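so my prof wants the structure for this chain in the tokens format not the other one, which i didnt know existed until like an hour ago. anyway here's the sequence
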Amino acid sequence: MKVYFNNSCKICKAEIDLYKKQKIDEIDWVDITDNELAEKETSKDSKQLLRRLHIKDGEKVIGGAEAFLILWKKMPKYKFLYNFFKLPIIFNIFSFVYEIVAFFLYLKNRKQLRKPN
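here's what i got, hopefully its the right format
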């Protein structure tokens, strides 16, 4: 499984660094900052990748709150988050809040997007 995240965002980096400490061998951490290979692997452009966390599990690319669920499910220390946030009503609230937070992080970090040629 690959996790595509924005290492240039201080908030994103801090959270991912916590997850990396779990040393889960089956997770490959991919910084999306100016990364054309990540765009090809996910079939997402740099704007879409910057907008949300994404994971690629097999051939399937999943973004946003659902990506966090899959990530937490793979991490024994954070599986409690998966078990809580997967509950239907909780997941709906989580998804809504995630989209708001992700939008503001996108606005804060969009200056790192490559300018079209």
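also thought this was worth mentioning. Residues 2-112 form one domain.
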